[in-house]
Amino acid sequence: MPAADGWSPSAAPCTNEQLTADSARRVDGNRVRITVINDGPAPCVLKGFPTVALAGQGSPDRNQPLHVVTQGPAPAVTLAVGGRAATELVFTPVLGEAGGYCASGAEPTVVPSLVVGVGGAGGGGWQLAPDDGGQFALCGATVHATAFRGSGP
């Protein structure tokens, strides 16, 4: 039987099929928070870091995976049904105003959505747009990410 916090020693690993995510909440100009919710029939265990790709305009086979640089440890989080876990993604910022530039000299990339998956949860993921209706602007093909952490019911 699960404890009050949803922890269950027999909980199975979370799968993309039982988790949901609906948007990327912008924290600041180059940082977003992705929250997933256990929408499944039972508690599950989530451990690790997200996978992240630039959405392939019109076709999943055109997604452009980003290199995820992990930040900190990745403890297991048991999610009760309805439980939430979040990760933060930090992109190399585009500098300047509307015409923006990259400090590296590379061309900035601007996309309307990302594809975010749960590392180790099997294929798939969610195509997410920023919650403010804007776009993602980044330099390079790297994103820094924290491990998923429990974030309450």
SSE-based structural type:
mainly beta
What is the average per-residue confidence, as pLDDT, rounded to a whole number? Answer: 86
Beta-strand segment tally: 16
Helix and strand pattern: EEEEEEEEEEEEEEEE
Shape: elongated
Q: Describe the largest sheet.
A: 7 strands, mixed
The radius of gyration over CA amounts to 16 Å
Strand content: 35-45%
DSSP helical segment count? 0
Short description:
The chain has 153 residues and is mostly beta strands. The chain has strands at 12-13, 19-20, 24-28, 31-38, 44-46, 50-54, 64-65, 67-71, 77-79, 84-91, 109-111, 114-118, 126-128, 136-138, 142-146, 149-150.
Architecture overview:
It is a single chain. With 153 residues, the chain is an all-beta fold. It has strands at 12-13, 19-20, 24-28, 31-38, 44-46, 50-54, 64-65, 67-71, 77-79, 84-91, 109-111, 114-118, 126-128, 136-138, 142-146, 149-150. Strand 3 and strand 4 form a beta hairpin. It is elongated, with a radius of gyration of 16 Å. The protein starts with 11 loop residues before the first strand and ends with a strand.
Sum up the structure in keywords:
153 residues; mainly beta
SSE blueprint:
Elements: E1 12-13, E2 19-20, E3 24-28, E4 31-38, E5 44-46, E6 50-54, E7 64-65, E8 67-71, E9 77-79, E10 84-91, E11 109-111, E12 114-118, E13 126-128, E14 136-138, E15 142-146, E16 149-150
Parallel strand pairs: 1-5, 8-15
Antiparallel strand pairs: 2-4, 3-4, 4-10, 5-9, 6-7, 6-12, 10-15, 10-16, 11-14, 12-13
